[in-house]
Amino acid sequence: MIPSFSDIEIAHNKIKNQIHKTPILTSTIINEICGCVLYFKCENLQKTGSFKIRGATNSILNLSEEDRHRGVVAHSSGNHAQALAYAAKQNNVKAYIVMPNNAPKVKINAVKDYGAEIIFCEPNINAREEETNKIIEKYGSKIIHPFNYFDTIAGQGTCAKEVFEEFNDLDFLVTPIGGGGLMSGSLISRNTLNPKCKVFGVEPEEVDDAYRSLNSGRIEINLTTNTICDGLLTNLGELTFEIIKNNIDGILLVNDFEVRKAQTLIIQRMKIVVEPSSATVFAAVIKNKEIFKNKKVGLIITGGNIDINL
Amino acid sequence: MIPSFSDIEIAHNKIKNQIHKTPILTSTIINEICGCVLYFKCENLQKTGSFKIRGATNSILNLSEEDRHRGVVAHSSGNHAQALAYAAKQNNVKAYIVMPNNAPKVKINAVKDYGAEIIFCEPNINAREEETNKIIEKYGSKIIHPFNYFDTIAGQGTCAKEVFEEFNDLDFLVTPIGGGGLMSGSLISRNTLNPKCKVFGVEPEEVDDAYRSLNSGRIEINLTTNTICDGLLTNLGELTFEIIKNNIDGILLVNDFEVRKAQTLIIQRMKIVVEPSSATVFAAVIKNKEIFKNKKVGLIITGGNIDINL
After folding, report:
1. From the list B45, B260, B308, which residue is nearest A308 (CB)?
2. For the domain A5-50+149-301, what is the CATH code?
3. Residue B110 has what pLDDT?
4. Percent of chain B beyond pLDDT 90?
5. Disulfide check for B58: which of B49, B155, B236, B264 has CB 3.0–4.6 Å away?
6. Contacts of A309 in chain B (CB under 8 A)
């Protein structure tokens, strides 16, 4: 079932007290570089360092009483793992996170700090799913999907809702596409709050499954994972593909060189820490100046979970 | 002459449209680490990457018509240089910035980008002052002091004003002390908006001139500049010392090891780029947990102008 805008409103009321209303930042210098007016919605400054806390919190708050007692499970080494661990802890629900045994220590520690139980597995999809199924069999825990899930999409939609409520005259909203949860929620919020605003997705050139899926009309899978954008490696799900193919205005592609340049510019000029996946949207604007010329453009900066060397 | 709170209000109305109202961020994890509730006033996200734009813009906007035509001059390799260059450009005033010829390229480029004319000099105080005097003689330009100046102090006071207007129940406000301009303005705002709030300054252990000045009752100079806090190397001025000695509640000292640890924690957990001088305030809270236990504490994060290696 596809969430409606009123599902996003309900989600927003539920999660409001457990998330930050993140700031929307602007920069004169950055605008001069791009030739348009950019509004950076800073989900990197969100709790757990990414927008994923929105969908995770909504999913936790919608558990039945029985599910609450049995806990939740997810396999992820990324931002969803941290978000689910944190949201579960805030609401006294047990979280099991299946992580590959080669996951970066900083991510393992973050999930541990948030109080989740980590189950390590070999770093491949089969092992991940096997360990996840073991948890489900053993504890009856509910799996919380990072994107292809009603409550997740409704939660992610609250981010674009905040953008449109603060700036109702945007010409464009640009967000990265991984599994498509954030994009799906953004499209639903756009349709109600600012139907004239065009919504573009951005993908790394080598992980362009959503771009190819729109062209072929069916869910395409990624042939490589050769990109620094570690948050965008997944394919679309059936639910997110359905929403995206019927509503999106286009997908732009960027390469890793462009992403790194954009990421560096944001960090140096805007003084915020952004992960490569987030910098894709700014890279796409720099690359396609003619599309955005003199327009008002919202960018969702999805996360900031990287290691920084001082 | 010492600015009153109404001078700060007048300054705020003048500069409002040329600066950001910077966000005040919070973090559950950071609060757990400290055992108190911290409010980070993010002047690192301010235009030119520091609070200095407040005083610089106010100084520029208060120039007489004659002074506007003759331009402004400052000797600085730090945040004041960038701020004055930017504020001057925004208001069509010529800025001359005297910088040591060994200043980091990134800072030289930033000042250039903001359109100021740079005059290089040998890296010592005599050479700086000599070059500055040459500019004053040649063009009649007005020198804009980075802290010991009425308009600068009134401008810097707008930062704490914004903090107190958003949170009127703070128990403490903590800010770094370099030349004392920000501290002076903060104290004046505190006296009117929240007289019960205690205001603490923070200095690096090896550059503790303000701490010693309060003890001795006269302006002490720094014996070393041996610290990573490059924004806090200056001594107090007569005007700022006068305000600080009559109003401040105390000065805390931190060492560079503590500062680097605090800086790393802020960058990793809060996803914002902060310079060492800014991290001093957080380091002081971590070091003095018993003072701040369970209290509401505002921290002014003064700037974010560092090189980051990705």
Report:
1. B308
2. 3.40.50.1100
3. 86
4. 87
5. B155
6. 309
